[in-house]
Amino acid sequence: MRIVAVVVVILAPLSASAPSLWAQDSAVEETANRRVQFGLFSLGVRGGVDLEQSGQALAGASVDVGYVYTPRLRFRIVGELGFAPSPNSYVGSFEAVFRFTPDSAIAVPYIGTGLGVVGNEACGADPDCPAIWWQFALGFELRLSRSANWFLEYHPQDALRRHRLLAGITMRPGEM
């Protein structure tokens, strides 16, 4: 329960101030004339479940921080905390995600991969902790409004040995 309170305390101010953090461009497609672009392109919050035996509950956030050659090939940073019923865990990852359609589409399927730092509350006693795991992402977003999408994501980790299912909301710059 303590971790849930920490997540809420951290994410609440971020979500309230997120529109003011975004660049002045009202859509990612408007900046597509550059080969590499860095900025805050979206901010998402997520919840889900670890599909392993423990069925650990998950809460987290993601931030799209840039793209290469096309706004559809994005870089994102993802952080997730696992809690209840097993020992608390964490994952922080950097991923490249390819979006098959532009942000303006009603449905945006995507696939991605990256590396994550994974640990748990017993890391001090475990010489193999934290660990670096290969991450994958497979999901889709459905338009909720002009600047927000619902999403559902299957997130296998550790070279497909562990599996997570996540859902949440992603907010994009634009008219809010």
Notable traits:
176 residues, mainly beta, globular, Porin, 8 strands
Structure at a glance:
The protein has one domain (2-16, 34-171): Beta Barrel (Porin), CATH 2.40.160. Helices cover 11% and strands 55% of the residues.
Question: Would you mind describing this structure in some detail?
Answer:
With 176 residues, the chain is mainly beta. It has a single domain, classed as Porin (Beta Barrel). It has 1 helix and 8 strands; from the N terminus they run H-E-E-E-E-E-E-E-E. It has one helix at 2-21; strands at 36-50, 57-68, 70-83, 89-99, 107-120, 131-145, 148-154, 164-171. It is globular and about 50 Å long.
Total helical elements:
1
Ends apart, CA distance between termini? 32 Å
CATH architecture: Beta Barrel
CATH class descriptor: Mainly Beta
Mean pLDDT metric: 81
Radius of gyration from the CA trace?
16 Å
Helix proportion range: 10-25%
How many individual domains? 1
Number of strands: 8
Which structural class best describes the helix and strand composition?
Answer: mainly beta
CATH topology: Porin
Strand order of the largest sheet: 1-2-3-4-5-6-7-8
Overall, the morphology is: globular
Strand content: over 45%
Secondary-structure element series? HEEEEEEEE
Residue runs with pLDDT of under 50 for 5 or more positions: 1-27
Biggest sheet, in brief?
Answer: 8 strands, antiparallel, barrel
